[in-house]
Amino acid sequence: MRDPGPEDLRQALQGLQAALRPHLAADWSLPAGPLDWNCHDTAAHIAHDLTAYATQLAAAPDDAYLPCDLTVRPAATPAHLLQIITAAGGLLTAILDTADPAIRAWHWGPCDPSGFAAMGMAETLLHTHDITRGLAPSWTVPGELAELILHRLFPDAPPGDPAAVLLWCTGRGELPGHPGRTTWSWRATRT
């Protein structure tokens, strides 16, 4: 199995747009699935994380996250949120397109570009899943992209349908024969 890269992140971002664009007129103040956040704040969180991953990879700090944050104004509409996610995702994919595979940047340890691509995909797709639970469309994480995320971030994941396993790994679903998860973390570091 190959590691994820910028094209995979582009596909995840396209999936987000396809899933959420038809629901711009919905009430984004509804809860986002199992999260404590609403749909609006969850979308802002996606953009924040994509921006953070881009700045980490561009600056390559080796000991901490850079002391900066993306602020999305509360008055941002759902359409604005999707544009902001597009911009943040564009920054990360542009950095990934040119990143030396040997570079390491801090994410709770040294993380390579494929780790940042996988984390960007995971944040995008998992939080799209959360938002769609709030807005009630039928949408699921694409299996091929879920498989890449599992390969890179959850190497000890059990076998099964990749989308269902990814949701279980992140405490968002049940998996027959496995107890539900209330805590979890992924492994993005790679030396």
UniProtKB/TrEMBL annotation:
InterPro entries: DinB/YfiT-like, MDMPI_metal-binding. This is Mycothiol-dependent maleylpyruvate isomerase metal-binding domain-containing protein. Pfam families: MDMPI_N (PF11716). Residues 9-131 form the Mycothiol-dependent maleylpyruvate isomerase metal-binding domain. It comes from Catellatospora coxensis. GO terms for molecular function: metal ion binding.
